[in-house]
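Friendly challenge for the regulars: who can give me the structure tokens for this chain first? No prize, just bragging rights.
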Amino acid sequence: MNRSPLSQSLLDRFLRYVVVDTMSDPHIVDRRPTTDGQMKLLKMLREELTELGVRELVLDPKGYLVARIPSNLPEGSNAPTIGFMAHVDVADDVEGNGVKPRVIESYDGNDISLNDRYAIVAEENKELEKYIGETLVVTDGNTLLGGDDKAGVAIMMTLAERLTAPDSFAHGEVELVFTSDEETGSGMDAFDVGMLESRCCYTLDGGKRGEIEAECFNAATVEIEFTGIPYHLGAARGRMVNSLSMAVAYIGALPRSESPEATDGRYGYFCAEEIEGTSASTQVTIYVRDFDSKGLERRIATLQSLGSTVEQLFPGGKVSVSSKIVYRNMYEAIKKDDLIMEALWKAAEKLGVELQEKIIRGGTDGARLAEMGIPAPNLYTGAHNLHSRFEWLALPAMEESALLVEQVIAFWAGVDA
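First reply, four minutes later:
Bragging rights claimed.
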């Protein structure tokens, strides 16, 4: 199949990166990155950037790679440094290692069989009809694909290739940031923002073609410890307090109408994500999300109050509630500089691309970066059904995203790409 050099480079890089095992582990809290494969891919990217002639490279052993590509504008230009960010890890919702991608050269519009058990059903994936005759990449049905976020990684590496080429378009200084452990929610915990000079940094961590995002949830993780009083079951009456029963009562009191499966749009939620324990002691992890920061605080306060209620229902039992803010709504930083989003709209206008601004019912490393003072909207990559075995990537959308990025760079440089 005939492809543009840009399209072929994007595909080749994506296929090369997704077969590197980089599934992160949210249960590891004392090591960064949490898995060896992430550092393996970061080192691979460093080698490729070095081969492209990029000289300003920093590989932090905690799992961050920062590359700086100098401006080629005339001396005295005041174009700001801008950045782009993607993460190398993949989620663990289904198996994320051992990925075997398959390229569909010319999609025929029908269901896509992944293996003898699973298929991507066209009726359930309406976006597929937009790519009849186009190139898609799918899984073998046993793992996720890794478009989140190796599609973003491939776009940024292809961008580096084009910016360092002898015939590159005029551009200001560009920083490329590759992070690890984004899927654990703590990937930016050890990041030194002092490594960056960017006025803003666009994350390439989105999905559907044309979707850009400047607003995300405020997020907190709440850990609840239930301590019971164990006793021999044969003599437990009036003496035993079962911590598992306490945890079940606690989770059962969470409003069903404010769960992930019952909400969409701007509605926040409580989600009991994990439970582990015995009759003596049980630990529960709850994810709390709200677009409004005060709403997040109210939700955390509700969980603390519920802990006191459960203690009263189970005399002698103890409930300890602790919370940690994971990320904040990135819009608070983005709205302070109108040019950040204007760059996207102007870039799309140049390409004749239709953009849709959406809200993220989740978060990105960009949300953490925004808290550190560098605004970071999120751009699409063409990946669909993220975190699932039914994931698929549309190459034309990926190519369009790369072209959009080039136009964004040109906007900040004040030139035509």
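The first strand starts at residue 56 and ends at 60. The radius of gyration is 23 Å. Your move, everyone else.
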